[in-house]
Known about the structure:
This protein is an alpha/beta fold. Helices cover 25% and strands 24% of the residues. The chain has helices spanning 34-43, 47-52, 90-94, 151-163, 178-184, 215-222, 242-265, 270-281, 292-301, 333-344, 369-380, 406-414, and strands at residues 7-8, 56-58, 70-77, 105-114, 119-125, 130-132, 139-141, 169-174, 188-192, 196-198, 203-205, 209-213, 228-230, 236-238, 284-287, 311-314, 317-322, 327-331, 357-362, 383-389, 398-401, 420-424, 433-437, 444-445, 455-457, 482-490.
Amino acid sequence: MSRGSTPLPTDEAPSSRPARSWKQRLVLGIGVVVVSACLLGAAGVGYGWWRLNQIDRQDLSLTASTGGPQNYLIVGSDSRSVVSKKDADAGAFLNGETEGAGQRSDTIMIARVDPAARTIDLLSFPRDLWVPIARTGGSERINTAYGYNDGAQRLVDTIREDFGVDINHYIEVNFKSFKEVVQAVDGVPIYFDKALRDYNTGLFIDEPGCVTLDGDQALAFARSRHLEYKDAKGKWQDDPTGDLGRINRQQVFIRRVTDRATAKATTINLKTTNDLIGATVQNLSVDQGFDVGDMFNLAKQFRDFRGDAMRTHAVPVTAWTTSGGAAVLKMDEPAADEVLNIFRGLPAGSISPTAVTLSVQNGSGVDGQAAQVKSALEAVGFTVTETSDAATSRDRTTVRYAPGSEREADLVARHLTSSAVLKSDSNLAKGKVVLVTGPDFTTVMREARPIDDATTSTTATSTTSTRPGGSGRSSSTTAPATTPTTDMVYDGPMGVAPGDPPDGVSCG
Length: 508
Protein backbone atom coordinates (compact mmCIF):
# COMPACT_ATOMS: atom_id res chain seq x y z
CA MET A 1 0.00 0.00 0.00
CA SER A 2 1.32 3.41 -0.87
CA ARG A 3 2.16 5.53 2.14
CA GLY A 4 2.35 9.27 2.23
CA SER A 5 0.46 12.45 3.08
CA THR A 6 -1.82 12.41 0.03
CA PRO A 7 -5.32 13.37 1.19
CA LEU A 8 -7.76 10.49 1.37
CA PRO A 9 -11.17 11.44 -0.08
CA THR A 10 -14.05 10.51 2.18
CA ASP A 11 -15.24 7.83 -0.26
CA GLU A 12 -11.86 6.23 -0.97
CA ALA A 13 -10.45 3.19 0.81
CA PRO A 14 -6.74 2.38 0.88
CA SER A 15 -5.73 0.21 -2.05
CA SER A 16 -3.62 -2.95 -1.98
CA ARG A 17 -1.38 -4.21 -4.75
CA PRO A 18 0.09 -7.64 -5.22
CA ALA A 19 3.35 -8.17 -3.45
CA ARG A 20 6.47 -9.47 -5.11
CA SER A 21 9.28 -11.64 -3.78
CA TRP A 22 9.04 -14.56 -1.38
CA LYS A 23 11.74 -16.69 0.07
CA GLN A 24 11.35 -20.48 0.23
CA ARG A 25 9.84 -21.60 3.45
CA LEU A 26 9.55 -24.53 5.79
CA VAL A 27 6.61 -25.67 7.92
CA LEU A 28 5.59 -23.63 10.95
CA GLY A 29 7.55 -20.67 9.58
CA ILE A 30 10.78 -22.12 10.85
CA GLY A 31 13.03 -19.15 10.23
CA VAL A 32 13.09 -17.22 7.00
CA VAL A 33 16.23 -18.94 5.74
CA VAL A 34 16.05 -22.47 7.08
CA VAL A 35 15.38 -24.17 3.77
CA SER A 36 16.80 -21.50 1.50
CA ALA A 37 20.17 -21.61 3.28
CA CYS A 38 20.36 -25.32 2.62
CA LEU A 39 19.57 -24.80 -1.05
CA LEU A 40 22.51 -22.53 -1.79
CA GLY A 41 24.64 -25.51 -2.65
CA ALA A 42 22.31 -26.37 -5.52
CA ALA A 43 21.93 -22.85 -6.85
CA GLY A 44 25.19 -22.91 -8.80
CA VAL A 45 24.02 -25.67 -11.11
CA GLY A 46 20.51 -24.29 -11.37
CA TYR A 47 18.94 -27.42 -9.86
CA GLY A 48 17.38 -25.72 -6.83
CA TRP A 49 16.28 -22.83 -9.05
CA TRP A 50 14.37 -25.18 -11.34
CA ARG A 51 12.73 -27.13 -8.53
CA LEU A 52 11.65 -24.04 -6.60
CA ASN A 53 9.87 -22.66 -9.64
CA GLN A 54 7.49 -25.60 -9.30
CA ILE A 55 6.01 -24.23 -6.06
CA ASP A 56 2.30 -23.46 -6.17
CA ARG A 57 1.34 -19.78 -6.20
CA GLN A 58 -1.81 -18.04 -5.00
CA ASP A 59 -3.30 -14.86 -6.44
CA LEU A 60 -3.65 -12.68 -3.35
CA SER A 61 -4.12 -8.99 -2.68
CA LEU A 62 -1.23 -8.03 -0.40
CA THR A 63 0.49 -4.81 0.59
CA ALA A 64 3.09 -3.88 -1.99
CA SER A 65 6.74 -4.35 -1.10
CA THR A 66 8.62 -1.06 -1.06
CA GLY A 67 11.94 -2.20 0.38
CA GLY A 68 12.99 -2.35 3.99
CA PRO A 69 11.45 -4.71 6.55
CA GLN A 70 8.75 -7.05 5.26
CA ASN A 71 5.97 -8.98 7.01
CA TYR A 72 5.44 -12.61 6.02
CA LEU A 73 2.23 -14.35 7.03
CA ILE A 74 3.12 -17.99 7.60
CA VAL A 75 0.30 -20.51 7.81
CA GLY A 76 0.58 -24.17 8.78
CA SER A 77 -2.29 -25.90 7.01
CA ASP A 78 -3.67 -28.77 9.10
CA SER A 79 -5.77 -30.45 6.42
CA ARG A 80 -6.71 -34.03 7.35
CA SER A 81 -7.62 -34.88 3.77
CA VAL A 82 -4.15 -36.30 3.08
CA VAL A 83 -3.92 -38.30 6.31
CA SER A 84 -4.97 -41.91 6.79
CA LYS A 85 -5.48 -43.51 10.19
CA LYS A 86 -2.97 -46.11 9.06
CA ASP A 87 -0.17 -43.53 8.85
CA ALA A 88 2.51 -43.84 11.55
CA ASP A 89 2.07 -40.18 12.45
CA ALA A 90 -1.74 -40.11 12.13
CA GLY A 91 -2.16 -39.28 15.83
CA ALA A 92 -0.38 -35.98 15.41
CA PHE A 93 -2.86 -34.98 12.71
CA LEU A 94 -6.16 -36.58 13.59
CA ASN A 95 -6.23 -36.39 17.39
CA GLY A 96 -8.87 -39.10 17.36
CA GLU A 97 -10.95 -37.41 14.66
CA THR A 98 -12.21 -38.91 11.44
CA GLU A 99 -10.16 -38.89 8.28
CA GLY A 100 -10.43 -35.82 6.08
CA ALA A 101 -11.98 -33.65 8.77
CA GLY A 102 -11.43 -30.52 6.71
CA GLN A 103 -8.78 -27.87 6.23
CA ARG A 104 -7.60 -25.95 9.26
CA SER A 105 -4.91 -23.51 10.24
CA ASP A 106 -3.42 -24.57 13.54
CA THR A 107 -0.34 -22.39 13.13
CA ILE A 108 -0.52 -18.70 12.24
CA MET A 109 2.63 -16.62 12.49
CA ILE A 110 4.00 -13.33 11.19
CA ALA A 111 7.73 -13.09 10.55
CA ARG A 112 9.06 -9.56 10.21
CA VAL A 113 12.31 -9.75 8.32
CA ASP A 114 14.77 -6.86 8.13
CA PRO A 115 17.65 -7.84 5.80
CA ALA A 116 19.54 -4.59 6.43
CA ALA A 117 19.56 -5.07 10.21
CA ARG A 118 19.70 -8.88 9.85
CA THR A 119 16.87 -9.31 12.35
CA ILE A 120 13.84 -11.59 12.40
CA ASP A 121 10.89 -10.99 14.72
CA LEU A 122 8.30 -13.73 15.04
CA LEU A 123 4.74 -13.30 16.31
CA SER A 124 2.38 -16.23 16.89
CA PHE A 125 -1.42 -15.99 17.09
CA PRO A 126 -3.29 -18.50 19.27
CA ARG A 127 -5.81 -20.46 17.20
CA ASP A 128 -8.53 -19.68 19.79
CA LEU A 129 -8.07 -15.90 19.59
CA TRP A 130 -11.56 -14.38 19.25
CA VAL A 131 -11.59 -11.65 16.58
CA PRO A 132 -13.88 -10.10 13.96
CA ILE A 133 -13.52 -12.18 10.77
CA ALA A 134 -13.22 -10.12 7.59
CA ARG A 135 -16.38 -9.82 5.49
CA THR A 136 -18.57 -11.83 7.88
CA GLY A 137 -20.01 -9.15 10.15
CA GLY A 138 -19.20 -11.22 13.23
CA SER A 139 -16.44 -12.70 15.37
CA GLU A 140 -14.98 -16.19 15.64
CA ARG A 141 -11.71 -17.95 16.42
CA ILE A 142 -9.00 -16.56 14.17
CA ASN A 143 -8.21 -19.90 12.57
CA THR A 144 -11.77 -20.15 11.18
CA ALA A 145 -10.92 -17.40 8.68
CA TYR A 146 -8.76 -19.92 6.87
CA GLY A 147 -11.67 -22.36 6.56
CA TYR A 148 -13.55 -20.22 4.01
CA ASN A 149 -13.24 -20.84 0.28
CA ASP A 150 -11.02 -17.74 0.06
CA GLY A 151 -9.28 -18.69 3.30
CA ALA A 152 -5.82 -17.30 2.54
CA GLN A 153 -7.13 -13.88 1.47
CA ARG A 154 -9.67 -13.76 4.29
CA LEU A 155 -6.98 -14.51 6.87
CA VAL A 156 -4.74 -11.80 5.40
CA ASP A 157 -7.61 -9.30 5.52
CA THR A 158 -8.63 -10.32 9.05
CA ILE A 159 -5.11 -9.72 10.37
CA ARG A 160 -4.81 -6.44 8.52
CA GLU A 161 -8.18 -5.17 9.76
CA ASP A 162 -8.03 -6.40 13.36
CA PHE A 163 -4.39 -5.72 14.20
CA GLY A 164 -3.33 -2.95 11.82
CA VAL A 165 -0.51 -5.10 10.46
CA ASP A 166 0.15 -5.09 6.72
CA ILE A 167 1.06 -8.39 5.07
CA ASN A 168 3.66 -8.23 2.29
CA HIS A 169 4.04 -11.93 1.55
CA TYR A 170 2.18 -15.17 2.18
CA ILE A 171 3.42 -18.72 2.66
CA GLU A 172 1.35 -21.80 3.38
CA VAL A 173 2.71 -25.25 4.13
CA ASN A 174 0.84 -28.49 4.60
CA PHE A 175 1.86 -30.22 7.83
CA LYS A 176 2.30 -33.42 5.85
CA SER A 177 5.72 -32.15 4.72
CA PHE A 178 6.94 -31.55 8.27
CA LYS A 179 8.32 -35.02 8.85
CA GLU A 180 10.25 -35.12 5.59
CA VAL A 181 11.83 -31.70 6.23
CA VAL A 182 13.05 -32.72 9.69
CA GLN A 183 14.40 -35.97 8.31
CA ALA A 184 16.20 -34.13 5.51
CA VAL A 185 18.31 -32.32 8.14
CA ASP A 186 18.88 -35.60 10.05
CA GLY A 187 16.58 -34.68 12.92
CA VAL A 188 16.60 -31.80 15.40
CA PRO A 189 18.56 -32.17 18.67
CA ILE A 190 16.89 -30.64 21.73
CA TYR A 191 17.69 -30.82 25.44
CA PHE A 192 14.75 -31.82 27.65
CA ASP A 193 15.09 -31.16 31.37
CA LYS A 194 12.11 -33.40 32.21
CA ALA A 195 10.11 -36.25 30.72
CA LEU A 196 7.16 -35.20 28.53
CA ARG A 197 4.22 -36.95 26.93
CA ASP A 198 1.08 -36.18 24.95
CA TYR A 199 -1.18 -39.12 24.14
CA ASN A 200 -3.13 -37.02 21.61
CA THR A 201 -0.14 -36.44 19.34
CA GLY A 202 2.03 -39.41 20.25
CA LEU A 203 4.81 -37.45 21.95
CA PHE A 204 6.85 -39.54 24.40
CA ILE A 205 10.10 -38.21 25.88
CA ASP A 206 10.81 -40.88 28.47
CA GLU A 207 13.90 -39.44 30.16
CA PRO A 208 15.55 -36.02 30.57
CA GLY A 209 18.57 -35.32 28.38
CA CYS A 210 19.51 -34.69 24.76
CA VAL A 211 17.04 -36.12 22.25
CA THR A 212 17.32 -35.83 18.48
CA LEU A 213 13.72 -35.57 17.34
CA ASP A 214 12.98 -37.46 14.13
CA GLY A 215 10.13 -36.46 11.85
CA ASP A 216 7.39 -38.23 13.80
CA GLN A 217 8.58 -36.97 17.18
CA ALA A 218 9.09 -33.42 15.92
CA LEU A 219 5.56 -33.31 14.53
CA ALA A 220 4.14 -34.66 17.80
CA PHE A 221 6.15 -32.10 19.78
CA ALA A 222 5.20 -29.11 17.62
CA ARG A 223 1.49 -29.94 17.73
CA SER A 224 1.18 -30.83 21.40
CA ARG A 225 -1.70 -29.04 23.18
CA HIS A 226 -2.39 -31.63 25.89
CA LEU A 227 1.09 -31.94 27.35
CA GLU A 228 1.99 -33.76 30.54
CA TYR A 229 5.33 -33.57 32.34
CA LYS A 230 6.97 -35.54 35.11
CA ASP A 231 7.65 -33.48 38.20
CA ALA A 232 10.57 -33.78 40.65
CA LYS A 233 8.71 -36.53 42.57
CA GLY A 234 8.28 -38.60 39.43
CA LYS A 235 4.56 -37.92 39.10
CA TRP A 236 2.87 -36.87 35.86
CA GLN A 237 1.34 -33.39 35.89
CA ASP A 238 -0.82 -31.58 33.30
CA ASP A 239 0.41 -28.47 31.53
CA PRO A 240 -2.82 -26.40 31.54
CA THR A 241 -1.65 -23.75 29.08
CA GLY A 242 -2.93 -25.56 25.96
CA ASP A 243 -2.39 -23.61 22.75
CA LEU A 244 -0.39 -20.86 24.48
CA GLY A 245 2.11 -23.39 25.74
CA ARG A 246 2.24 -25.00 22.32
CA ILE A 247 3.15 -21.63 20.76
CA ASN A 248 6.07 -21.29 23.16
CA ARG A 249 7.27 -24.81 22.32
CA GLN A 250 6.95 -24.12 18.60
CA GLN A 251 9.11 -21.03 18.96
CA VAL A 252 11.75 -23.06 20.81
CA PHE A 253 11.65 -25.62 18.02
CA ILE A 254 11.99 -22.90 15.37
CA ARG A 255 15.23 -21.74 16.94
CA ARG A 256 16.63 -25.26 17.16
CA VAL A 257 15.77 -26.27 13.62
CA THR A 258 17.09 -22.95 12.29
CA ASP A 259 20.46 -23.72 13.85
CA ARG A 260 20.33 -27.28 12.54
CA ALA A 261 19.54 -26.29 8.97
CA THR A 262 22.10 -23.48 8.95
CA ALA A 263 24.78 -25.90 10.16
CA LYS A 264 23.75 -28.44 7.53
CA ALA A 265 24.15 -25.82 4.81
CA THR A 266 27.92 -26.00 5.26
CA THR A 267 27.97 -29.73 4.48
CA ILE A 268 25.09 -29.85 1.99
CA ASN A 269 25.09 -32.56 -0.66
CA LEU A 270 22.87 -33.17 -3.65
CA LYS A 271 20.87 -35.95 -1.97
CA THR A 272 20.09 -33.83 1.10
CA THR A 273 19.21 -30.91 -1.15
CA ASN A 274 16.89 -33.08 -3.20
CA ASP A 275 15.25 -34.50 -0.07
CA LEU A 276 14.77 -31.04 1.41
CA ILE A 277 13.31 -29.52 -1.75
CA GLY A 278 11.14 -32.56 -2.39
CA ALA A 279 9.74 -32.37 1.14
CA THR A 280 8.50 -28.83 0.61
CA VAL A 281 7.82 -28.14 -3.06
CA GLN A 282 4.73 -30.36 -3.30
CA ASN A 283 3.29 -29.10 -0.02
CA LEU A 284 4.08 -25.42 -0.33
CA SER A 285 2.02 -22.50 -1.60
CA VAL A 286 3.13 -18.87 -1.79
CA ASP A 287 1.80 -15.58 -3.09
CA GLN A 288 2.11 -14.91 -6.81
CA GLY A 289 5.05 -12.56 -6.24
CA PHE A 290 7.38 -15.42 -5.36
CA ASP A 291 10.81 -14.76 -6.81
CA VAL A 292 13.45 -17.47 -6.58
CA GLY A 293 16.27 -14.98 -7.16
CA ASP A 294 15.23 -12.94 -4.15
CA MET A 295 15.04 -16.15 -2.14
CA PHE A 296 18.68 -16.95 -2.73
CA ASN A 297 19.77 -13.36 -2.16
CA LEU A 298 18.09 -13.35 1.23
CA ALA A 299 19.57 -16.73 2.07
CA LYS A 300 23.04 -15.33 1.46
CA GLN A 301 22.35 -12.36 3.75
CA PHE A 302 21.16 -14.64 6.57
CA ARG A 303 23.44 -17.58 5.95
CA ASP A 304 25.10 -17.41 9.39
CA PHE A 305 21.93 -16.43 11.25
CA ARG A 306 21.43 -18.31 14.52
CA GLY A 307 18.13 -19.30 16.04
CA ASP A 308 18.91 -17.56 19.35
CA ALA A 309 19.07 -14.26 17.46
CA MET A 310 15.44 -14.66 16.42
CA ARG A 311 13.19 -12.49 18.57
CA THR A 312 9.90 -14.14 19.45
CA HIS A 313 6.78 -12.37 20.69
CA ALA A 314 3.39 -13.32 22.10
CA VAL A 315 0.04 -11.57 21.77
CA PRO A 316 -1.17 -10.61 25.27
CA VAL A 317 -4.49 -12.40 25.77
CA THR A 318 -7.12 -13.03 28.43
CA ALA A 319 -9.27 -16.12 28.81
CA TRP A 320 -12.91 -15.42 27.89
CA THR A 321 -16.15 -17.31 27.44
CA THR A 322 -18.57 -16.42 24.66
CA SER A 323 -22.28 -16.02 25.23
CA GLY A 324 -22.60 -19.44 23.64
CA GLY A 325 -20.31 -20.97 26.25
CA ALA A 326 -17.19 -21.40 24.10
CA ALA A 327 -13.84 -20.98 25.86
CA VAL A 328 -11.74 -18.56 23.79
CA LEU A 329 -9.03 -15.93 24.16
CA LYS A 330 -9.42 -12.17 23.79
CA MET A 331 -6.53 -9.84 23.01
CA ASP A 332 -5.63 -7.32 25.68
CA GLU A 333 -5.54 -4.36 23.29
CA PRO A 334 -3.67 -1.76 25.37
CA ALA A 335 -0.93 -4.25 26.24
CA ALA A 336 -0.82 -5.65 22.69
CA ASP A 337 0.11 -2.34 21.07
CA GLU A 338 3.76 -2.55 22.12
CA VAL A 339 4.09 -5.95 20.45
CA LEU A 340 2.04 -5.12 17.38
CA ASN A 341 3.94 -1.86 16.81
CA ILE A 342 7.02 -3.93 15.94
CA PHE A 343 5.11 -5.51 13.07
CA ARG A 344 3.40 -2.24 12.14
CA GLY A 345 6.78 -0.60 11.79
CA LEU A 346 6.00 1.95 14.49
CA PRO A 347 8.35 3.26 17.19
CA ALA A 348 7.93 2.01 20.74
CA GLY A 349 5.20 3.88 22.58
CA SER A 350 3.24 4.65 19.43
CA ILE A 351 -0.41 3.93 18.88
CA SER A 352 -2.05 3.10 15.56
CA PRO A 353 -5.50 3.99 14.23
CA THR A 354 -6.63 0.44 14.98
CA ALA A 355 -6.27 1.18 18.69
CA VAL A 356 -8.59 4.22 18.58
CA THR A 357 -12.39 4.18 18.87
CA LEU A 358 -14.30 7.44 18.47
CA SER A 359 -17.56 9.06 17.43
CA VAL A 360 -18.07 11.80 14.82
CA GLN A 361 -20.34 14.83 15.05
CA ASN A 362 -21.21 17.17 12.21
CA GLY A 363 -20.57 20.68 13.48
CA SER A 364 -20.26 22.36 10.09
CA GLY A 365 -23.81 21.89 8.84
CA VAL A 366 -22.62 20.27 5.59
CA ASP A 367 -25.20 17.68 4.62
CA GLY A 368 -24.05 14.09 5.26
CA GLN A 369 -20.57 15.10 6.41
CA ALA A 370 -20.49 12.93 9.56
CA ALA A 371 -21.19 9.76 7.58
CA GLN A 372 -18.55 10.63 4.99
CA VAL A 373 -15.95 11.31 7.67
CA LYS A 374 -16.83 8.02 9.36
CA SER A 375 -16.13 6.11 6.12
CA ALA A 376 -12.80 7.88 5.62
CA LEU A 377 -11.62 7.29 9.19
CA GLU A 378 -12.57 3.61 9.04
CA ALA A 379 -10.66 3.26 5.76
CA VAL A 380 -7.52 4.42 7.57
CA GLY A 381 -8.13 2.05 10.48
CA PHE A 382 -10.08 3.93 13.16
CA THR A 383 -13.24 2.43 14.63
CA VAL A 384 -16.18 4.86 14.54
CA THR A 385 -19.05 3.78 16.79
CA GLU A 386 -21.60 6.47 15.96
CA THR A 387 -22.31 9.63 13.98
CA SER A 388 -24.63 12.54 14.76
CA ASP A 389 -25.17 16.25 14.30
CA ALA A 390 -23.53 18.50 16.88
CA ALA A 391 -25.90 20.34 19.21
CA THR A 392 -24.34 23.63 18.12
CA SER A 393 -22.24 24.62 15.12
CA ARG A 394 -18.48 25.02 15.58
CA ASP A 395 -16.12 27.67 14.29
CA ARG A 396 -13.26 25.15 14.10
CA THR A 397 -12.84 21.41 13.89
CA THR A 398 -12.40 20.09 17.42
CA VAL A 399 -11.33 16.78 18.94
CA ARG A 400 -12.77 16.34 22.42
CA TYR A 401 -11.39 13.60 24.63
CA ALA A 402 -11.70 12.17 28.12
CA PRO A 403 -8.72 12.77 30.40
CA GLY A 404 -6.13 10.09 29.71
CA SER A 405 -6.94 9.81 25.99
CA GLU A 406 -4.61 12.58 24.83
CA ARG A 407 -2.58 10.35 22.51
CA GLU A 408 -5.69 8.97 20.82
CA ALA A 409 -7.12 12.44 20.25
CA ASP A 410 -3.81 13.74 18.95
CA LEU A 411 -3.59 10.90 16.42
CA VAL A 412 -7.10 11.62 15.13
CA ALA A 413 -6.24 15.30 14.69
CA ARG A 414 -3.01 14.53 12.84
CA HIS A 415 -4.92 12.47 10.26
CA LEU A 416 -6.89 15.56 9.22
CA THR A 417 -5.68 17.84 6.42
CA SER A 418 -7.09 20.78 8.36
CA SER A 419 -5.82 21.72 11.79
CA ALA A 420 -7.91 20.85 14.83
CA VAL A 421 -8.32 22.02 18.39
CA LEU A 422 -7.72 19.38 21.06
CA LYS A 423 -9.94 19.84 24.09
CA SER A 424 -10.00 17.80 27.27
CA ASP A 425 -13.55 17.13 28.47
CA SER A 426 -14.03 15.66 31.94
CA ASN A 427 -17.70 15.02 31.15
CA LEU A 428 -16.77 12.31 28.65
CA ALA A 429 -16.59 8.70 29.77
CA LYS A 430 -13.16 7.12 30.17
CA GLY A 431 -11.52 6.44 26.81
CA LYS A 432 -14.05 8.48 24.86
CA VAL A 433 -12.93 10.58 21.86
CA VAL A 434 -15.27 12.76 19.77
CA LEU A 435 -14.39 14.46 16.49
CA VAL A 436 -16.59 17.50 15.81
CA THR A 437 -16.18 18.89 12.29
CA GLY A 438 -16.17 22.61 11.68
CA PRO A 439 -16.29 24.78 8.53
CA ASP A 440 -12.50 24.36 8.19
CA PHE A 441 -12.74 20.56 7.84
CA THR A 442 -11.45 19.24 4.51
CA THR A 443 -10.55 15.55 4.41
CA VAL A 444 -8.74 12.62 6.05
CA MET A 445 -5.17 11.53 5.26
CA ARG A 446 -3.74 8.02 5.16
CA GLU A 447 -0.48 9.22 6.73
CA ALA A 448 -0.60 11.20 9.98
CA ARG A 449 1.06 14.57 10.16
CA PRO A 450 4.25 14.77 12.24
CA ILE A 451 3.87 15.42 15.94
CA ASP A 452 3.00 19.03 16.85
CA ASP A 453 2.32 19.88 13.20
CA ALA A 454 -1.44 19.40 13.09
CA THR A 455 -3.09 20.62 16.23
CA THR A 456 -3.57 23.35 18.72
CA SER A 457 -4.64 22.32 22.17
CA THR A 458 -6.12 23.54 25.41
CA THR A 459 -4.03 20.90 27.20
CA ALA A 460 -0.70 19.16 26.72
CA THR A 461 -0.65 16.57 23.92
CA SER A 462 1.37 13.45 23.26
CA THR A 463 4.90 13.77 21.95
CA THR A 464 5.18 10.21 20.67
CA SER A 465 5.84 9.88 16.95
CA THR A 466 3.36 7.70 15.07
CA ARG A 467 2.09 6.80 11.65
CA PRO A 468 -0.69 4.47 10.48
CA GLY A 469 0.21 0.81 10.39
CA GLY A 470 -2.57 -0.93 8.49
CA SER A 471 -5.44 -0.64 6.06
CA GLY A 472 -8.29 -0.75 8.50
CA ARG A 473 -10.04 -2.53 11.30
CA SER A 474 -13.36 -4.30 11.27
CA SER A 475 -16.11 -2.19 12.79
CA SER A 476 -18.51 -5.11 13.17
CA THR A 477 -20.93 -4.72 16.06
CA THR A 478 -22.73 -8.05 15.62
CA ALA A 479 -20.23 -10.31 17.38
CA PRO A 480 -21.61 -12.44 20.23
CA ALA A 481 -21.14 -10.91 23.66
CA THR A 482 -18.35 -12.26 25.79
CA THR A 483 -17.56 -12.28 29.48
CA PRO A 484 -14.17 -12.64 31.16
CA THR A 485 -13.42 -15.77 33.12
CA THR A 486 -10.11 -14.64 34.57
CA ASP A 487 -8.16 -11.47 35.18
CA MET A 488 -4.89 -13.07 34.14
CA VAL A 489 -3.28 -11.60 31.04
CA TYR A 490 -0.88 -13.87 29.15
CA ASP A 491 1.80 -11.77 27.49
CA GLY A 492 4.95 -13.88 27.38
CA PRO A 493 6.40 -17.39 27.10
CA MET A 494 4.44 -19.92 29.09
CA GLY A 495 3.87 -23.62 29.44
CA VAL A 496 6.41 -26.40 29.76
CA ALA A 497 9.13 -26.11 27.12
CA PRO A 498 12.72 -27.28 26.67
CA GLY A 499 15.50 -24.93 27.65
CA ASP A 500 19.23 -24.68 27.17
CA PRO A 501 21.33 -27.67 28.27
CA PRO A 502 23.31 -27.30 31.52
CA ASP A 503 26.97 -26.32 31.46
CA GLY A 504 29.13 -29.04 30.04
CA VAL A 505 26.29 -30.59 28.02
CA SER A 506 26.03 -30.06 24.27
CA CYS A 507 23.18 -31.36 22.12
CA GLY A 508 24.03 -31.90 18.47
